[in-house]
Protein backbone atom coordinates (compact mmCIF):
# COMPACT_ATOMS: atom_id res chain seq x y z
CA UNK A 1 0.00 0.00 0.00
CA UNK A 2 1.08 3.57 -0.61
CA UNK A 3 2.39 6.06 1.88
CA UNK A 4 -0.16 7.94 3.97
CA UNK A 5 2.11 10.28 5.90
CA UNK A 6 5.53 11.57 5.06
CA UNK A 7 7.38 13.47 7.72
CA UNK A 8 10.35 15.41 6.38
CA UNK A 9 13.05 17.14 8.38
CA UNK A 10 10.71 17.80 11.31
CA UNK A 11 12.26 19.91 14.07
CA UNK A 12 10.84 21.38 17.26
CA UNK A 13 12.71 23.70 19.55
CA UNK A 14 11.47 24.92 22.91
CA UNK A 15 13.40 28.04 23.91
CA UNK A 16 16.63 26.81 22.36
CA UNK A 17 16.15 23.17 23.48
CA UNK A 18 15.75 20.83 20.51
CA UNK A 19 13.11 18.22 21.41
CA UNK A 20 12.72 16.88 17.85
CA UNK A 21 15.68 17.12 15.54
CA UNK A 22 15.43 16.82 11.74
CA UNK A 23 13.15 13.78 11.90
CA UNK A 24 11.99 12.06 8.72
CA UNK A 25 9.84 8.94 8.40
CA UNK A 26 7.00 7.44 6.37
CA UNK A 27 3.79 5.79 7.57
CA UNK A 28 2.12 3.58 4.96
CA UNK A 29 -1.59 2.98 4.65
CA UNK A 30 -2.52 -0.06 6.75
CA UNK A 31 0.57 0.12 8.98
CA UNK A 32 0.61 -0.38 12.68
CA UNK A 33 3.54 1.97 13.00
CA UNK A 34 5.51 1.71 16.24
CA UNK A 35 7.06 4.85 17.60
CA UNK A 36 9.72 3.74 20.06
CA UNK A 37 11.83 5.86 22.36
CA UNK A 38 12.65 6.36 26.00
CA UNK A 39 10.95 8.93 28.15
CA UNK A 40 11.83 12.34 26.81
CA UNK A 41 12.93 11.04 23.38
CA UNK A 42 10.49 13.33 21.60
CA UNK A 43 7.62 10.96 20.81
CA UNK A 44 4.77 13.04 22.23
CA UNK A 45 6.19 16.23 20.75
CA UNK A 46 6.23 14.60 17.29
CA UNK A 47 2.70 13.22 17.67
CA UNK A 48 1.46 16.59 18.89
CA UNK A 49 2.86 18.25 15.78
CA UNK A 50 1.07 15.65 13.65
CA UNK A 51 -2.16 16.63 15.39
CA UNK A 52 -1.45 20.35 14.97
CA UNK A 53 -1.49 20.84 18.74
CA UNK A 54 1.89 22.52 18.41
CA UNK A 55 3.65 23.99 15.40
CA UNK A 56 6.93 22.64 14.05
CA UNK A 57 9.94 24.95 14.17
CA UNK A 58 10.83 23.60 10.72
CA UNK A 59 10.15 20.66 8.45
CA UNK A 60 6.87 19.34 7.12
CA UNK A 61 4.24 16.68 7.62
CA UNK A 62 2.61 15.56 4.40
CA UNK A 63 -0.70 13.66 4.52
CA UNK A 64 -2.14 12.16 1.32
CA UNK A 65 0.24 14.31 -0.68
CA UNK A 66 -0.51 17.65 1.06
CA UNK A 67 1.38 19.56 3.72
CA UNK A 68 -0.91 19.55 6.76
CA UNK A 69 -0.02 23.18 7.43
CA UNK A 70 -2.39 24.03 4.58
CA UNK A 71 -4.64 21.02 3.99
CA UNK A 72 -7.78 22.61 5.51
CA UNK A 73 -7.52 20.17 8.42
CA UNK A 74 -8.03 17.19 6.12
CA UNK A 75 -5.63 15.04 8.15
CA UNK A 76 -7.26 16.05 11.44
CA UNK A 77 -10.70 15.09 10.15
CA UNK A 78 -9.43 11.66 9.24
CA UNK A 79 -7.59 11.11 12.50
CA UNK A 80 -8.62 9.89 15.93
CA UNK A 81 -6.13 10.30 18.75
CA UNK A 82 -5.41 9.68 22.38
CA UNK A 83 -2.47 11.82 23.35
CA UNK A 84 -3.02 12.28 27.03
CA UNK A 85 -5.37 10.46 29.34
CA UNK A 86 -8.68 11.17 27.68
CA UNK A 87 -10.94 13.59 29.54
CA UNK A 88 -14.31 12.09 30.38
CA UNK A 89 -17.35 12.85 32.46
CA UNK A 90 -16.75 10.44 35.28
CA UNK A 91 -20.27 10.65 36.72
CA UNK A 92 -21.86 9.85 33.37
CA UNK A 93 -22.17 6.40 31.78
CA UNK A 94 -19.93 5.09 29.02
CA UNK A 95 -22.85 5.46 26.61
CA UNK A 96 -23.56 9.06 27.59
CA UNK A 97 -19.88 10.00 27.32
CA UNK A 98 -19.71 8.56 23.83
CA UNK A 99 -22.99 10.28 22.91
CA UNK A 100 -21.65 13.69 23.98
CA UNK A 101 -18.35 13.33 22.13
CA UNK A 102 -20.12 11.98 19.03
CA UNK A 103 -22.46 14.98 19.03
CA UNK A 104 -19.50 17.34 19.46
CA UNK A 105 -17.75 15.80 16.45
CA UNK A 106 -20.78 16.69 14.35
CA UNK A 107 -21.58 13.20 13.05
CA UNK A 108 -25.07 11.73 12.72
CA UNK A 109 -25.58 9.84 15.97
CA UNK A 110 -27.69 6.71 16.32
CA UNK A 111 -28.02 4.28 19.21
CA UNK A 112 -26.82 1.45 16.96
CA UNK A 113 -23.67 3.34 15.96
CA UNK A 114 -22.79 4.09 19.57
CA UNK A 115 -23.50 0.53 20.76
CA UNK A 116 -21.44 -0.91 17.87
CA UNK A 117 -18.62 1.38 18.87
CA UNK A 118 -18.85 0.26 22.50
CA UNK A 119 -18.96 -3.40 21.41
CA UNK A 120 -15.81 -2.87 19.36
CA UNK A 121 -13.90 -1.92 22.52
CA UNK A 122 -15.63 -4.57 24.65
CA UNK A 123 -17.73 -2.17 26.73
CA UNK A 124 -21.24 -2.85 25.37
CA UNK A 125 -22.25 -4.82 28.45
CA UNK A 126 -21.07 -2.02 30.73
CA UNK A 127 -22.57 0.83 28.70
CA UNK A 128 -24.88 1.97 31.51
CA UNK A 129 -22.15 2.05 34.17
CA UNK A 130 -20.63 5.36 35.16
CA UNK A 131 -17.01 5.92 34.13
CA UNK A 132 -15.95 6.44 37.75
CA UNK A 133 -16.37 2.68 38.30
CA UNK A 134 -14.11 1.76 35.34
CA UNK A 135 -10.56 0.40 35.51
CA UNK A 136 -7.81 2.38 33.77
CA UNK A 137 -7.90 -0.12 30.90
CA UNK A 138 -11.65 0.31 30.45
CA UNK A 139 -11.28 4.11 30.44
CA UNK A 140 -8.54 3.80 27.89
CA UNK A 141 -10.75 1.61 25.68
CA UNK A 142 -13.65 4.04 26.02
CA UNK A 143 -11.17 6.73 24.96
CA UNK A 144 -10.51 4.74 21.79
CA UNK A 145 -14.25 4.39 21.11
CA UNK A 146 -14.54 8.19 21.46
CA UNK A 147 -11.52 8.76 19.21
CA UNK A 148 -13.02 6.48 16.56
CA UNK A 149 -16.61 7.64 16.65
CA UNK A 150 -16.21 9.83 13.55
CA UNK A 151 -14.80 6.82 11.62
CA UNK A 152 -11.27 8.14 11.00
CA UNK A 153 -8.88 6.08 8.91
CA UNK A 154 -5.87 6.94 11.07
CA UNK A 155 -5.57 6.52 14.82
CA UNK A 156 -2.72 7.92 16.91
CA UNK A 157 -2.17 6.47 20.37
CA UNK A 158 0.49 7.86 22.70
CA UNK A 159 1.69 5.16 25.12
CA UNK A 160 -1.74 3.48 25.29
CA UNK A 161 -0.61 0.72 27.66
CA UNK A 162 0.99 3.06 30.21
CA UNK A 163 -0.43 2.51 33.68
CA UNK A 164 -2.48 -0.54 32.70
CA UNK A 165 -2.45 -3.88 34.51
CA UNK A 166 -1.43 -7.01 32.56
CA UNK A 167 -5.03 -7.76 31.54
CA UNK A 168 -5.49 -4.15 30.43
CA UNK A 169 -2.28 -4.34 28.38
CA UNK A 170 -3.40 -7.56 26.68
CA UNK A 171 -6.86 -6.08 25.92
CA UNK A 172 -5.28 -2.95 24.46
CA UNK A 173 -2.91 -4.97 22.24
CA UNK A 174 -5.78 -7.08 20.94
CA UNK A 175 -7.85 -3.99 20.27
CA UNK A 176 -5.02 -2.35 18.29
CA UNK A 177 -4.55 -5.51 16.23
CA UNK A 178 -8.29 -5.68 15.53
CA UNK A 179 -8.41 -2.02 14.51
CA UNK A 180 -5.74 -2.80 11.97
CA UNK A 181 -6.70 -6.27 10.74
CA UNK A 182 -10.48 -6.20 10.88
CA UNK A 183 -11.22 -2.52 10.38
CA UNK A 184 -8.34 -1.57 8.10
CA UNK A 185 -7.25 1.39 10.24
CA UNK A 186 -3.76 2.79 10.06
CA UNK A 187 -2.41 3.04 13.60
CA UNK A 188 0.52 5.01 14.99
CA UNK A 189 1.37 3.86 18.48
CA UNK A 190 4.15 5.07 20.73
CA UNK A 191 5.87 3.15 23.49
CA UNK A 192 9.09 3.09 25.48
CA UNK A 193 9.10 -0.74 25.37
CA UNK A 194 10.58 -2.59 22.42
CA UNK A 195 8.75 -5.78 23.46
CA UNK A 196 5.46 -3.92 23.16
CA UNK A 197 6.18 -2.59 19.67
CA UNK A 198 7.51 -5.98 18.59
CA UNK A 199 4.14 -7.60 19.30
CA UNK A 200 1.82 -5.11 17.63
CA UNK A 201 3.67 -3.14 14.96
CA UNK A 202 4.65 -4.13 11.43
CA UNK A 203 6.93 -1.13 10.94
CA UNK A 204 8.70 1.05 13.47
CA UNK A 205 11.03 3.91 14.16
CA UNK A 206 13.33 4.32 17.13
CA UNK A 207 14.06 7.87 18.21
CA UNK A 208 16.54 9.09 20.78
CA UNK A 209 17.05 12.70 21.84
CA UNK A 210 14.72 13.77 19.06
CA UNK A 211 16.66 12.02 16.32
CA UNK A 212 15.94 8.94 14.26
CA UNK A 213 18.09 5.97 15.17
CA UNK A 214 16.55 3.42 12.84
CA UNK A 215 13.33 2.87 10.87
CA UNK A 216 12.06 -0.21 9.08
CA UNK A 217 10.03 -3.38 9.06
CA UNK A 218 9.85 -4.99 12.49
CA UNK A 219 10.54 -8.45 11.01
CA UNK A 220 13.70 -7.17 9.39
CA UNK A 221 14.92 -5.13 12.35
CA UNK A 222 14.16 -7.97 14.74
CA UNK A 223 15.29 -10.79 12.48
CA UNK A 224 15.44 -14.00 14.59
CA UNK A 225 18.40 -15.18 12.50
CA UNK A 226 20.40 -12.40 14.09
CA UNK A 227 20.12 -13.14 17.79
CA UNK A 228 22.86 -12.61 20.33
CA UNK A 229 22.97 -15.36 22.92
CA UNK A 230 24.79 -14.66 26.15
CA UNK A 231 26.00 -17.66 28.13
CA UNK A 232 27.32 -17.47 31.65
CA UNK A 233 28.86 -20.53 33.26
CA UNK A 234 30.90 -21.52 36.29
CA UNK A 235 34.02 -21.76 34.15
CA UNK A 236 33.71 -19.68 30.99
CA UNK A 237 37.10 -20.71 29.60
CA UNK A 238 36.15 -24.38 29.87
CA UNK A 239 32.82 -23.71 28.14
CA UNK A 240 34.64 -21.88 25.35
CA UNK A 241 37.08 -24.76 24.95
CA UNK A 242 34.18 -27.21 24.79
CA UNK A 243 32.36 -25.13 22.21
CA UNK A 244 35.49 -24.88 20.10
CA UNK A 245 35.25 -28.63 19.54
CA UNK A 246 31.83 -28.16 17.91
CA UNK A 247 30.20 -26.44 14.94
CA UNK A 248 29.24 -23.55 17.23
CA UNK A 249 32.86 -22.32 17.33
CA UNK A 250 32.38 -20.03 14.34
CA UNK A 251 29.42 -18.36 16.00
CA UNK A 252 31.28 -17.23 19.11
CA UNK A 253 31.51 -13.46 18.81
CA UNK A 254 32.98 -12.32 22.12
CA UNK A 255 34.11 -13.94 25.33
CA UNK A 256 35.30 -12.73 28.70
CA UNK A 257 36.12 -14.69 31.80
CA UNK A 258 32.50 -14.34 32.87
CA UNK A 259 30.50 -14.91 29.70
CA UNK A 260 30.40 -15.92 26.06
CA UNK A 261 28.38 -14.34 23.30
CA UNK A 262 27.23 -16.18 20.19
CA UNK A 263 25.44 -14.70 17.20
CA UNK A 264 22.95 -17.25 15.91
CA UNK A 265 19.41 -18.09 14.94
CA UNK A 266 17.00 -17.94 17.87
CA UNK A 267 15.44 -21.27 16.85
CA UNK A 268 18.79 -23.05 17.35
CA UNK A 269 19.02 -22.05 21.03
CA UNK A 270 17.46 -25.30 22.41
CA UNK A 271 19.96 -27.33 20.40
CA UNK A 272 22.84 -25.25 21.78
CA UNK A 273 21.63 -25.76 25.35
CA UNK A 274 21.33 -29.51 24.74
CA UNK A 275 24.85 -29.70 23.40
CA UNK A 276 26.30 -27.62 26.24
CA UNK A 277 24.68 -29.97 28.73
CA UNK A 278 26.07 -32.94 26.83
CA UNK A 279 29.54 -31.35 27.01
CA UNK A 280 29.03 -31.09 30.78
CA UNK A 281 29.46 -27.33 30.87
CA UNK A 282 28.22 -25.91 34.13
CA UNK A 283 25.84 -23.36 32.70
CA UNK A 284 24.38 -20.64 34.90
CA UNK A 285 22.30 -18.83 32.28
CA UNK A 286 21.57 -18.68 28.56
CA UNK A 287 19.99 -15.44 27.45
CA UNK A 288 18.94 -14.88 23.85
CA UNK A 289 18.60 -11.24 22.90
CA UNK A 290 18.17 -9.52 19.65
CA UNK A 291 20.96 -7.10 18.85
CA UNK A 292 18.44 -4.27 18.44
CA UNK A 293 17.17 -4.98 21.96
CA UNK A 294 20.74 -4.77 23.26
CA UNK A 295 21.23 -1.59 21.36
CA UNK A 296 18.02 -0.06 22.67
CA UNK A 297 18.95 -0.98 26.24
CA UNK A 298 22.39 0.55 25.75
CA UNK A 299 20.70 3.88 25.00
CA UNK A 300 19.30 3.83 28.53
CA UNK A 301 22.72 3.32 30.04
CA UNK A 302 24.65 5.62 27.78
CA UNK A 303 23.62 9.21 28.09
CA UNK A 304 26.50 10.92 26.41
CA UNK A 305 27.51 9.14 23.23
CA UNK A 306 25.20 7.34 20.84
CA UNK A 307 26.60 5.04 18.17
CA UNK A 308 24.27 4.49 15.21
CA UNK A 309 22.58 1.11 15.07
CA UNK A 310 23.98 -1.36 12.56
CA UNK A 311 22.39 -4.75 12.13
N1 LIG B 1 6.27 22.62 26.09
C1 LIG B 1 7.52 22.25 26.32
N2 LIG B 1 8.45 23.14 26.74
C2 LIG B 1 9.73 22.78 26.97
N3 LIG B 1 10.20 21.55 26.79
C3 LIG B 1 9.35 20.60 26.38
C4 LIG B 1 7.96 20.89 26.12
N4 LIG B 1 7.37 19.74 25.71
C5 LIG B 1 8.32 18.77 25.72
N5 LIG B 1 9.50 19.29 26.12
C6 LIG B 1 10.78 18.55 26.25
O1 LIG B 1 11.03 17.90 25.03
C7 LIG B 1 11.62 16.61 25.25
C8 LIG B 1 10.78 15.57 24.56
O2 LIG B 1 9.54 15.42 25.25
P1 LIG B 1 8.41 14.43 24.77
O3 LIG B 1 7.25 14.59 25.71
O4 LIG B 1 8.16 14.61 23.33
O5 LIG B 1 9.10 13.02 25.00
P2 LIG B 1 8.47 11.57 24.92
O6 LIG B 1 9.37 10.77 24.07
O7 LIG B 1 7.05 11.63 24.54
O8 LIG B 1 8.62 11.08 26.40
P3 LIG B 1 7.49 10.83 27.50
O9 LIG B 1 7.05 9.45 27.26
O10 LIG B 1 8.26 10.98 28.78
O11 LIG B 1 6.44 11.87 27.30
C9 LIG B 1 11.67 16.43 26.76
O12 LIG B 1 12.98 16.73 27.18
C10 LIG B 1 10.68 17.43 27.28
O13 LIG B 1 11.05 17.89 28.56
Automatic annotation (TrEMBL):
| Membrane-spanning residues | none
**What InterPro entries does this protein map onto?**
AAA+_ATPase (IPR003593), ABC_transporter-like_ATP-bd (IPR003439), ABC_transporter-like_CS (IPR017871), P-loop_NTPase (IPR027417)
Matches recorded under Pfam families: ABC_tran (PF00005)
Q: Keyword check for Nucleotide-binding, yes or no.
A: yes
Instruction: Give UniProt keywords alphabetically.
Output: ATP-binding, Nucleotide-binding, Transport
Q: Where is the ABC transporter domain?
A: 5-234
Q: Name one GO molecular function term.
A: ATP binding
Stated family: Belongs to the ABC transporter superfamily.
- Protein name in UniProt: ABC transporter ATP-binding protein
Species of origin reads Ferruginibacter yonginensis
Q: What is the lineage of its organism?
A: Bacteria, Pseudomonadati, Bacteroidota, Chitinophagia, Chitinophagales
Amino acid sequence: MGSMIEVRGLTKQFKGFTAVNDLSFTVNEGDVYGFLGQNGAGKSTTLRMMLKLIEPTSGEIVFSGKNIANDNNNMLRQTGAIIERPDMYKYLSAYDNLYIFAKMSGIKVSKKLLMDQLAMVGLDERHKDIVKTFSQGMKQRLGIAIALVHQPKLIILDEPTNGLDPQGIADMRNLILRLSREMGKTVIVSSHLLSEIEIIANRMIIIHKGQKIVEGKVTELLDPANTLVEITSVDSAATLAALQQTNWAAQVETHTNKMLRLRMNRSDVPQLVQQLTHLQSQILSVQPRHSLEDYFLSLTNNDTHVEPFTN
